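Incident log, structure service

09:12 report received: a user says their structure output differs between two submissions of the same chain.
09:20 pulled the input from the user's history:
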Amino acid sequence: MNTIKKLFKIFLLIILIVPMMIPPQEVKGKTINGLQQEINDAKKQIEENKNKKQLTQEQIQTVNANISLIDKEIKDGEAKVIALNEESIKLANKIEEKKEEIKKIINFFQLSNGEETYLEYVFGAATFTDFIYRKAITEQLTKYNKNLVKEFDEMIKANRKKTEEIAEQEKELLKKQANLQSEIVKLRYQTNLLEKDTGDLEDGILEAQKTLNDLRRLGCGENEEARACYDRLNTLPVDTQFWRPTNTGVITSYFGPRSYPYVGFHYGIDIGIPIGTPVYAIAAGKVASFNYWDGTGYVVYVYHNINGVKYTSVYEHLDRYNTYVGAIVDKNTVIAYSGNTGYSTGPHLHLSILNGWAGIDYILWSNAYYNNNLNPITKINFPHGQYWHNRTTWYK
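09:34 re-ran on a clean worker, output below:
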């Protein structure tokens, strides 16, 4: 058991260390014209998303129609069961009535205790023909009642069998209904994702187009690399390492897949801190932009040059800003104060680190944006599940 535990610890250590040993991947810059083409492609993607959303909504309508049909079948089945039960009760009552009639006949003729009355009735016939008639009538009356009781009994059994069959059908219909309801949930989730992706991409396009227009206005050529032009027009400090963004805190949600509170991939880490906690730049750099999005709340983007490699740091769910676009910052600069804005379940800071300069090397919220997200704990020394009380650095 100890050997297994040791091997497991070694395995975890490898998982944590290996990503830190991988050299940073430099994002290839795009020309002004190339970034414009990416914006145009993103607009086409938005149209595709809208078409997909329309198709998904049509699917939802079809599934809802099927659910309505099943609901009707279930109600019809329930009505049939009620009718069959009522019929069974009526038949059962008739059976009891016939049983009483048979008892009276048997008692009258004293078939159970003797045959005196029966014989008296039969042999009291005036003629032989009358004798045959009386005997036949008595036997037929008793037989008729017994046959009727048997017939009613069989009808009750048939009703019960039909009721069981309808109940089984209802079970199958309820299963189909549950499956369709589950499909509705998936389709609505897909619709929500399409809406979110479309909305995010539209916001990203607006930001990218604004940046592009600014670069063109400042003299960047169509075939000039957008990042190189930005670098030429803006002085960006070079740093050697990243620092923690707050003096104290604890990681409450890590980078990677998660199912609560929002299903999907978590592109960053969440740091649980009270509203109003000072948020520092994680390295020297320049404030590229800040904005308010429904998902992120108030957010700040900072460009960095770490040992010649370009990165973007993102600080989300802020309460208020303490900086401006174009500001030169370093590890001691308070750029904002933490909050609980946007899609947030409690006061915290969401920190993301991306390869390249988001908004210049690729559009915000595009596939390239998500693909270039890095796990912040591979760049900054965060103690696992423990509070920290200093801004110790650690960059590999």
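09:41 both user submissions now match this output. Likely a transient worker issue. Closing.
09:42 reviewer note: Residues 7-24 have pLDDT under 50 and may be disordered. The helical segments are 2-21, 32-109, 116-123, 128-217, 226-233, 367-371.
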